[in-house]
Design a protein that fits this description.
The protein is α/β, with parallel strands linked by helices. Helix content is 44%, strand content 15%. Strands 3-2-1-4-5-6-7 form a 7-stranded parallel beta sheet, sandwiched between helices. The longest helix has 29 residues. The protein starts with a strand and ends with a strand.
Amino acid sequence: MNGVLIVTGASAGIGAATARMAAFSGWQRIVVHYGKDKDGAETTAAMVESMGAQAYLVQADVAKPKAIEKMFAKLRDLKPGPVGLVNNAGIVSPHGSIADLTPDRVEKVFSVNVFGAIEVARQSVMLMREWNQGGSIVNVSSAAARLGSANQYVDYAATKGAIDTFTVGLADELAPEGIRVNGIRPGLIETDIHAKGGEPDRLDRLAPSTPMGRAGTAEECAEAILWLLSERASYVTRSILDVAGGR
């Protein structure tokens, strides 16, 4: 597959796992996007190339529309092909209750998780239309969209609820063009997002309570994402797949 796979937030966690595994799924050109963690992104890119695919390292603050626009201007220099987007970049603030959800905090989380994700999708669709070789989008939501994350980070959960709605609406809009749009909702996954949210022991505390009795891995999420992107899921759109161990 001589397509271009764009993975935002590919310096760590689910994004990094998806970029690494994409070469095994036939993607020959993989855009490794990062916001701040250049070292992590370079490690991901090196692993991608070690598996025979081409890696394109790009930096952009997805909270800034102009930065996203510049990133896609660079991508237009690539040889056209089918486009895949893994809309993964996201942030979480430290856990807290409603009293902690100040306007500045909420704006920061929404600027990346919602406004940035929508602009990345918009730019990707524009690229798909220009190249006219098809495409597929997978938005990375969270089980928090269903659970609400009370007393943890309701603002983060709200952003993922918005992503779920955006996924459904965009899928309906783009289906006539042959562009599929799906999402995944990861549950308790072994990534560093829990430490960033101020709860490094969160998995140890909550994972045993899931029906499967354990946390998931970034690789398990990547498998779901890459299936949704692939032709094996050619009749799947407007779907949001829970990767949450039954939680």
